[in-house]
Amino acid sequence: MTCNKHFFILKDLAESESDDQLQIITLRNPATGKPTKYLLRNDDQDLYELNCFSESNRSWFINESVCSNGKIFLPTRIDPLFLAIPYLEKNCDGKAVPLDHILVDDEFPHTSRLVKPCSRSGQLALISDEKRAGDICAYKYNEDKLMDWLRRKCIRLEQALGKERKFSRSHNFIKEEKENEREVGEMLQYAHGIVSDYLSLEHSKKLSTAVGIPEEKVQNKRKSTAELEVSQIKKIKKEEIHETTPIKPVEKKVSAKSKALAKAASGTKSIASFFKK
């Protein structure tokens, strides 16, 4: 017997919290602009991104049933301001606009549900200028505030990574044994890379300048899936082609001594000829 279920690992889940209070919605990814799944809980107050771990030939046994979908979903908290940045830049760059008019997207109607988490505790004022007129509160995009907010996030993340000593290289995942052998600013580059996962390429480059990372050391992590697939196809094709170049015969050099022996042996009979009848 199979059932259509999904396996989630969620921290601090209350026993009284029902499935209706956990709602999965589709929003625009702030870095790529593509549809991405997110989780809302606590009456739209808390926003989570959904990270999926999937392997082939994996299932779950749940009580007396089998869940053929063996994926593991790991919801992790995300600052909703990251998702608001593209809309602030687009809709209120030159004028102050109320938040419910900023977070509007015809392709992603659930974007309006970001109003609650973004307006909580005046967080939006960290990346924009707040204008009030009576009960109306409007916001105007402020890039200087945004860069300062992102820079402080990078610094705090760098300190947290250094404190926990949980650093690994992105390519070979070899943990450094001696902290003093690390390059100066290497941890900051790693923190910048994590924050840049939620930023456009343009903002990522500006952030690297704000935190003092040389541009040549900033890795472009915005390679599209299509580009990755093309490069993978090219790699496979290259491995499948086995072109060979004809090998020219190597002429052996004959020494003068060998030539003299060959000349002396010309016209003489071989030893085997003496044993023939």
UniProtKB/TrEMBL annotation:
Stretches assigned to the Rnh202 triple barrel domain: 15-79
InterPro entries: RNase_H2_suB, RNase_H2_suB_wHTH, Rnh202_N
Alphabetic keyword roster: Nucleus
Superkingdom, natural source: Eukaryota
Record bears the keyword Nucleus: yes
Family of the protein in this entry: Belongs to the RNase H2 subunit B family.
Protein name: Ribonuclease H2 subunit B
Organism (species): Aedes albopictus
